[in-house]
Structures are given as C-alpha cells and as structure tokens.
Design a protein that fits this description.
The chain is of the alpha/beta class and 170 residues long. It is 39% helix and 15% strand. It is built from six helices and six strands.
Length: 170
Amino acid sequence: MKFSVGYQLRQDNLFISTVKEYIGKIGEVYFSFEDLPNGRNIISSIGINRYTAREKQEFELAELSKTGISFNLLLNGNCYGKEALSRAFFCKVGDTIDYLQEKYGLKSVTTTSPLIAKFLKQNFTDIEVRASVNIGIENVVGMDYIAEYFDSFYLKREYNRNLKELKAAK
C-alpha cells in the first residue's frame, strides 16, 4: 500500500524532503494549483505573494516528478462562481490540465463537480477522474448516480476510518 499526501507550500523545504525520504511509501501527491477553486489556499498561511508561491510550487513539483511520483490535481471547490458554466472557465481548466500533464505528468483530477468531471471525461481520456470526499458519497448507490462521469470515488469523510463501511463499499 502506498499513501497519497497533500501538498503543503512551506517557506522551508520540509515537505519535499519528507516526501523524498518516504518515497517508497508515497505513491501520489495531491495539490491545488493557481487560483482554480479547490477548497485550499496554499499561500495565505505562510505570507508570500502568489508569484513566489507559484515559483516555489513549480520547483517542488519538478523535483518530485523526477522521483516518479504521481500527481493528482484538486478541483475541489464547492462553488465556481458566476463563471462556472462559461467557456472561459472550462478553457482555463483545460489549459491548466494540459500544462500540468505536459510538465509534470499529471495522472488524475479529484473534483466535487459533475460538470468538470464530464468535461474531463470528454476531453482528457487519459486522466483518471475521481469523485471528491466532499461530494459525500455513502455507498454504491451514490456512486451509481454519478458513475458516468467518474472513474473512482472517495467515500464521505466520516467513513475514513470506518472499516465496516469501507468493506461494504468495496
């Protein structure tokens, strides 16, 4: 079994050095990127500007990609605002995924949005599309409702350590 760990932008290099130290046990890093709504704000907690944050994140992603680790992009926002159905929004999502695939070998995307999932399935057949824990899926019936747009599913957060529910879903 290998773990999936969440990217943490830090002023020091602790995250990247820790991942490299445990590279045999970590199979994937999930992360948000730029200003795409994702449920995370990677820069406000350490007080650096967005340009410096992007430069540091890109450096760290490049270093990690040399190890062969997989990457999972979070498009995990619960609201995408007035642009949510616009061509510009989907162009931005598509351009970001193209960029991350080409530069770092992006393998998967986790999203709360069935609309984004549908867009990904139609335009990025080589990307695994995962239903986010934030959707709140409890069982196979919930998976069936959205199975057309997702390749895999995270069960709701409350089931993270509930072996009975995890076995039932499996």
